[in-house]
Amino acid sequence: MVTKIIKDNVFAVGAVDWNERRFHGYSYVTKRGVTYNSYLIVDDQTTLLDTVRVGFEKEWIENITNISELSKIKNIIINHIEPDHSGGFPEIVKLCPNAVFYGTEKAKAGLFKYYGVLPKNWISVKFGQNLNIGKRTLEFIDVPMIHWPDSMFTYCAYDKILFSNDGFGQHYATNKTFDDEVCFGDLMDEVQKYYANILWPFSSIIKAKLEAIIKLKLPIEIIAPSHGLVWKKYVNEVIEKYLYWSNSSCQNKIAIVYETMWNSTEKMARKILEGIISENLEAKLFDVTKNDRTDIAAYMLDAKGWVFGSSTHDSEMLSVIAGFLYFLKDSKAKGRKAFAFGSYGWSGEAIKNIENILSKTAEFLPSLKFVYNPSEAELQECFNAGKNFAKKLKE
Ligand code: FEO
Fold first, then answer.
1. Range of the domain at 389
2. CB neighbours (10 Å) of residue 121?
3. Catalytic annotation present for 240
């Protein structure tokens, strides 16, 4: 067993879920696995932050007891109650019956609803309250909707560590501890994927909260999230990224996302792509049935252009793209331009339905739809539409 040291007397004691490939239900594909990070601070009052997912208690308790006897744990901080972090709660309540638990009032209510138990000692906390554990004082910063209403960060000024729970997390199973111990590109891909698939709908809240935290001028040398690697070398970079994404900032790049029945919509998609490329813009083509939806969302997070295609089937768009558009609708993205296209047999409602779902999320330019198989002239129209769309984005 390797003890992961974050700083003197601050340890990572969580668990690694090497084989998790479908997180949060079905749609978040975690191809690099997942970690459930928990931290132990050894001070006059030994303090544990967060728990792990159900099924990982044994590994977690072994990691803790490798450093400290359970009876020495005086405080247990619950930053967030979603089951990937609170699954070990009933176990730790049982193992540390005299510890004092800290969390928001919403966390307390949620834990009871999930597990039907509460510890003997619970103190509900909010921003402005803190806990002295010896040399260290831990400050509580409630951050509702990063990721749930109960969520909070815990800041330790002594070590200059922000324990950020879901914030700044990445799904990256590894035996490494810090951000500079893995490939930087892979790490940034995962943090972008995490933001797009978990936090995107809360961007306006994240922006306001981050700006408020920045105003506090807390020295932050380490960000210790509850998923993935600990940020140390790239703290400023990941904060900058969060500010960028939460501001709905985007680049002049285009995602073409489509689903096709008999390849006609696919032919249109490829011609639209050619038109875009002729304007030297970056673009990617995603058949939504063949690509990982998690990756598409990550690409779209900072793509200014969104192009959607679907064949019409029984007066509707096809079902896989429909599911994806409902996900995007909730993103509350701003500043995006879009257009819809597709082939149809006799009515062509898919196009209007695509526009309706995302009418508040993106500004739609005139759509394109062609009956059955697009002719050469119609494919030229697709090329022109792609080219014009790229030009619009550059304006
Ligand atoms: Fe990683 Fe909102 O739980």
1. 254-394
2. 15
3. no
Q: Are residues 28 and 172 in the same domain?
A: yes
Which of 17, 43, 102, 147 is flagged as catalytic? 147
Per-residue confidence in pLDDT tens, the chain, 395 aa: 678 999 999 999 999 999 999 998 888 999 999 999 999 999 999 999 999 999 999 999 999 999 999 999 999 999 999 999 999 999 999 999 999 999 999 999 999 999 999 999 999 999 999 999 999 999 999 999 999 999 999 999 999 999 999 999 999 999 999 999 999 999 999 999 999 999 999 999 999 999 999 999 999 999 999 999 999 999 999 999 999 999 999 999 999 999 999 999 999 999 999 999 999 999 999 999 999 999 999 999 999 999 999 999 999 999 999 999 999 998 999 999 999 999 999 999 999 999 999 999 999 999 999 999 999 999 999 999 999 999 999 99
Ligand 1 pocket, residues with Cβ under 6 angstroms: 80, 82, 84-85, 147-148, 166, 226-227
Q: Let me know whether 259 and 242 are in one domain.
A: no
CATH number at residue 374: 3.40.50.360
Catalytic residue among 85, 139, 190, 227: 227
Alpha carbon 130 to its chain centroid, in Å, reads 28
Cα 111 to Cα 24, 78, 198, 329, 383, distances in angstroms: 18, 10, 21, 30, 55
User: Is 234 an annotated catalytic residue?
Assistant: no
- Whole-Å CA distances, 290 to 55, 65, 307, 311, 354: 32, 45, 17, 16, 20
> Which of 20, 84, 266, 287 does the annotation list as catalytic?
84
Residue type, 362: A
85 is known as an active-site residue? no
Q: 100 and 194 in one domain?
A: yes
CA 148 to ligand 1 centroid distance, Å:
8
Residue ending a domain, among 204, 221, 246, is 246
Q: Which of 288, 280, 279 is nearest to 255 (CA)?
A: 288
